[in-house]
Structures are given as structure tokens and as C-alpha cells.
Amino acid sequence: MLCRLLCLCLCPDPQVDLRDRHALVDIFSSHRFEAVIHFAGLKAVGESVHKPLLYYDNNLVGTITLLEVMAANGCKKLVFSSSATVYGWPKEVPCTEEFPLCATNPYGRTKLVIEDICRDVHRSDPDWKIILLRYFNPVGAHPSGYIGEDPCGVPNNLMPYVQQVAVGRLPHLTVYGTDYSTKDGTGVRDYIHVVDLADGHIAALRKLYEDSDKIGCEVYNLGTGKGTSVLEMVAAFEKASGKKIPLVFAGRRPGDAEIVYAATAKAEKELKWKAKYGIEEMCRDLWNWASKNPYGYAGSRDNSK
Ligand code: UD1
Question: Is the pLDDT of residue 131 over 60?
């Protein structure tokens, strides 16, 4: 069963665009899916500001089409990748799932709207069982070194950028903001190992099955509950890799929050899931992947292209 559950996410074939209703209908006609994990969203904040319609089309239309085709095929269990971006600049930390939500860019707005769509879909038909997972900052790679992040173009996020500096693809890291009210003046985030994040999805699927009668549309944070500054992350990576990361200090990046980290009690209690790894393991596994695959999956891609 797990194989079928995960087929849409893991199988290279068939690969379809969720907006391609005919292709999606074909897949659902040829397989019986018990549940879907929906990761198929665009996620670059800056790009979403420049290309909002692309984000609304891909993220919203894709999700609506998926929900419609699922419903038509009697598949009404969904795990959706939401994001801590829905907390905006939180007034306090840790962020609990009940905090007020907001969006500061089109990408964030698609996450908020999809969360609302899911709540409405469940209200209209209680057969739907939906878990919304609010990811904090995913970092690291599979410990094997075979699976890791390979961003197209210059990375936007901190650790993919650090990784490319470490392998010599980029000259230095720009640290955005040194005057935040944090331990060293740099922004604080809740970094979570991608393997812990993956386990969180298995826990969510289990919850959809084991507590099916109690679940409606529920939301859970996936984070460690610990805040780490930019400079602490860089230091941890330097230790794990033995590489010096040259730094350039700059002003704050527009739209960045000061401190964001998760309250984890709800996921621990109800999903029986807790992050196992700390930043040492995240940096170790990230470096293992980066050193074995300095140019990602393509092997020899050039960032300047
Ligand atoms: C970002 C997005 C968030 C999205 C998440 C996906 C923004 C404003 N937020 O979160 O909506 O869900 O990625 O993973 O883009 N930093 C540097 N130099 C860099 C890059 C980052 O100093 O080159 C700092 C940032 O200022 C921040 C921290 O590193 O303090 C983490 O940044 P990042 O990895 O981009 O994640 P978020 O901004 O938390």
C-alpha cells in the first residue's frame, strides 16, 4: 500500500503537471490511490513576487485540480506541504499552530489559500481527512549522499548557498542583517533535517489511517523547537566540512522575520513524531551530499548560465 501511496511523489514515471487534468485523470484511472502527499508547489519567494500569476496558477490551480480528481476517484486522504511562512513575522516564539496567519508575498499567499481551501473542502464533505504540515527550514540531505537539494540557478535559501560557497561555486555568503535582537544580531530560524521532515510525513499518513474517525483538517508544525542564528549555522557547517565560508555582511533582506521557531508539542502528542537530528547532523549530511555532488544531479552545471 505504501508503494501506491507514495507513487505520485516518488516514481519518475509517470510524471505529470498537476494542472494537466487529463493526465491526472489517466493516472487515477490506472491506479487506486489510498492517499496523496502533495509536495508539488513552487517555493521561491522572490520569484513569486516577480511572477505572481505563475505561483497562483501552479500552486492553486494545481491543488484544486488534484483535489477534484481525487474526489472523483474516492481518494479523500491528503497530506499537504504548507510552510512556516504563514506565521509571517510572529509577535512571539515559539509559533503554535493557533497563531494568527498572514502572507507577505504571493508564495506565502498560495500556502494560506490552499490551507483555507482544504478546510473548506473538509467542511463541505467530512469524508475528507487532511493534514497540513507547516515546514520550518528544511536542511541537509539523505545520509547516503545520493539524494540532496539541487537548486536551479543561484540559491535563495541559506544552506544551499553555503553549500555552493563550500564547493567553490560561489565566492562568499552574504549575511542579511546583523542588527536583529538576537544572540549575535543575525536572523534565527528553526532548521530541521530533511530526514526528520520525511518521517513527519509518514507519521501524518499513519495518523490519517489510525485516527481516521477523529481527523478532519488538522495542521501541525514540523520543526525542532530550537532557534539557530545564521552565524551559528555557518559555524556548524564549517566544523562539519572543514571549509572556511567567507562572509560579507549586508543589510536585512526585505520581508525577513527576526526569529521564527516552532512549538512542537502538538506534533509530538498527536502525530507521535519528534525531530531526532540537530544542526550537526544536518551539516554533516549536507556536506556529504555536496562534496560527492558539487554540481548536483547534472554533475557539471554552471551557475553562470
Ligand atoms: C524562506 C522563505 C520562506 C520559505 C522558505 C523555504 C523568505 C523571506 N522566506 O524562509 O517563505 O518558506 O524559505 O525554505 O525568503 N540568509 C542569509 N543569506 C542568504 C540566505 C539567507 O543571511 O544568502 C539568512 C536569512 O536572512 C534568514 C536565514 O538566513 O535569516 C534563513 O533564510 P532562508 O534559508 O532563505 O529561509 P527563510 O527566510 O526562513
Answer: yes
pLDDT in tens, 209-235: 998 888 999 999 999 999 999 999 999
Map out the domains of the chain as residue ranges: 5-292
| pLDDT of 5 higher than 50 | no
Kindly report the protein residue whose alpha carbon is nearest to atom 19 of ligand 1: 158
What mean pLDDT is predicted for residues 278-304?
A: 86
Nearest CA to ligand 1 atom 30: 187
Query: Burial level of 24, CB count in 10 A (0-12/13-18/19+)?
Result: buried
Q: Which atom of ligand 1 is nearest to the CA of 173?
A: 23
Q: Is 107 a catalytic residue?
A: yes
Find the 157 Cα to ligand 1 centroid distance in Å. Answer: 5
**Taking the C-alpha atoms of 201, 203, 205 and 208 in order, what is their torsion angle to the nearest 10 degrees?**
-140
* pLDDT (0 to 100) of residue 298: 86
Kindly give the number of the ligand 1 atom that is closest to the alpha carbon of 253: 26
Residue 106 phi/psi, 5-degree rounding, is: -60, -35
Measured in Å, residue 273 CA sits from the centre of ligand 1 at 25
Percent over 90 (pLDDT), the chain: 89
Report, at the CATH architecture level, how domain 5-292 is classified.
3-Layer(aba) Sandwich (3.40)
Print burial letters for 144-179: b (CB count within 10 Å at least 16), e (below 16).
eeebbbbeeeebebbbbbbbbbbeebbeebebbbbe
pTM of the complete model = 0.94
The residue whose CA is least distant from atom 33 of ligand 1 is 157
DSSP output for 42-109: ---HHHHHH-HHHHIIIIIIHHHHHHHHHHHTT--EEEEEEEGGGG-S-SSSSBPTTS----SSHHHH
Lowest mean pLDDT segment, chosen from 21-25, 93-97, 132-136, 149-153: 149-153
